[in-house]
Design goal:
single chain; two-stranded antiparallel ribbon; two-stranded antiparallel sheet
Length: 171
């Protein structure tokens, strides 16, 4: 009985305290960011490890941008930090990268929730570390559309699966 209680405790800890929280930073979920990135059409202009960017407008490669020094159209240089990435998403006209067209990135992303914005930034940040990306991101091609499940689904599934493997029944 104590063994089952220990298993249930571990399952609850996994369900309610994300294992990769330190890698996600500021609450952003890189896997959700990857889904959003695909669904919002970001690959139309941006590339990730050479995939995407098939649209008329070309935008920066994002798998290597985090922590890189970026030259802006005005000649200034900035580091691509989380703050820079967030600002580029919500206010794309604020700091346009040199040699990329101004006014092409949609401004509708400013209307995303804080959680979704944090997830997009987290996704871009995780891309810079191939080992971390391999551990945290689904192993699917970046150009395959993915449906977003309701936010509570994974936690509920872990608990249900965990309880059923422990042989516990609902009374």
């Amino acid at each position: 009985m104590h063994g089952r209680l220990a298993q249930l405790t571990v399952l609850c800890l996994i369900a309610f305290f994300p294992v990769a929280a330190s890698a996600q930073g500021e609450g952003g979920d890189p896997a959700r960011g990857q889904q959003l990135f695909r669904q919002l059409g970001c690959l139309e202009c941006h590339t990730v490890r050479g995939e995407g960017g098939g649209g008329e407008t070309k935008a920066p490669e994002l798998s290597t941008i985090f922590r890189e020094t970026i030259e802006l159209e005005d000649g200034k240089k900035v580091e691509a930090t989380e703050a820079y990435l967030l600002r580029s998403i919500v206010d794309p006209e604020a700091q346009t990268v040199k040699d990329y067209p101004k006014g092409k990135m949609p401004t509708r992303f400013a209307n995303l929730s804080d959680a979704d914005l944090a997830s997009l930034v987290s996704y871009i940040r995780v891309l810079a570390d191939k080992d971390l990306a391999a551990r945290l991101l689904p192993a699917t091609s970046v150009d395959v559309p993915v449906e977003i499940a309701p936010a509570g689904t994974p936690v509920a599934m872990w608990v249900v699966l965990g309880l059923s493997t422990l042989g516990l029944a609902w009374v």
